[in-house]
Specification:
By secondary structure, the chain is of the alpha/beta class. The chain is built from 18 helices and 9 strands. The longest helix is centred in the N-terminal third of the chain and has 24 residues.
Length: about 425
Amino acid sequence: MKFDPTFKRAALGTALLLALAASAHAGTGPTAISAHARSLQAQAINLDTHLDTPALFSKPGWKITDRHSFEQDGSQIDYPRMVEGGLDGGFWVIFTGQGERDGIGQLKARDAGLARLAEIREMVAANADKFELATTAEDAARIKAAGKKSVYISMENAYPLEHDPSLLRFYYKQGLRMISLAHISHNGFSDSAGMGVAPEGEHGGLSAKGKALIAKANRLGIIIDQSHASNTAFDQMLELSTAPIILSHSGASDVFAHSRNIDDARIRALAKKGGVIQVNSLGGYLIDTGATPEYRAERRALHAAYGENHEFTDAEREQLKAKVAELDRKYGIRTADFDDYMRHLLHIIEVAGWEHVGLGADWDGGGGVDGYEDITALPKVVQALLDAGYNDTQISGILGGNTVRLIGEVQALADPAAVKAALE
């Protein structure tokens, strides 16, 4: 199955307009942020583990240092808005859509992954006064104290490594510290959670190649990310990994039964082994939107009419926005809001324990709901957690402390000889 761009807004930069067609909801979160919430957030380390913003780095005229607007171009992260929202950094994603699984497809994926890696490093180098590459747990606090934003690097979909898995060592040397094995389609490493793929999978979870990749990542101290992999792959990752694992952007299937969400029993198993689940804000994973296969087909056709990688004019953007709104009305599409997001977050905290929960909103990759449209709304989460009765220590852990702990624990379990060899 080829990659479906309608499920990854960052891949084309056009599906972002879908959210703009949504009507306002009552459940858009706190209307005021207390001084206590702002002080708490300022002292905490605020990390998001799934930032798809690197997909925008090559977009003509788009700069991370400029203040952009979700309403105007659909982007959700930039430096000015990180400052306003209090985000200290996170994992910036090397995303590669799943293409053909033949030799040519694998070579294209290899080159795409390396190009995205270069774009992330170039962004950091060009803005050294504002951003800094982070590779260890200790870097998060040090970089925050220096008044800059941390850039940890992750890979979503190991497809770029299918041609040559030994490239993992090169990626590690360049800063990679987290990897997920699949995206929305099965690949040579792992079965996917979907959508639109055979639920029984292809490998029965992980392939032999996938199991070997996990072992290599463990030796290097690279965090294993289960998000997008199948439930069977989750069970096998948890059993095989010598270090705790992460779900960098997932939700609770006991709140909404979606293939991309995880059930309570597995959340408890994750926590028992020291792992962390970061809660996703992609509306279609939070609630039943009513999107049918027919709706999805018409939505894809709307975007396809403009062609791939089309740079929209303001007039075209408004035109597409109106067409999407009309399509949503035709099918009665429902949209998620801040309360829907908090329902998943609060449920997962209760099930896993606050020490095993964090934030991975999927900004610039499909995330965002009414009342939580971009990173400037992060203080709302802090206030909502305070309103729910959580204390400063617990909230600080959820904002980023738990992620920092996980990075340190995974790296402490790495093989020093393998790390040394990769860095030489």
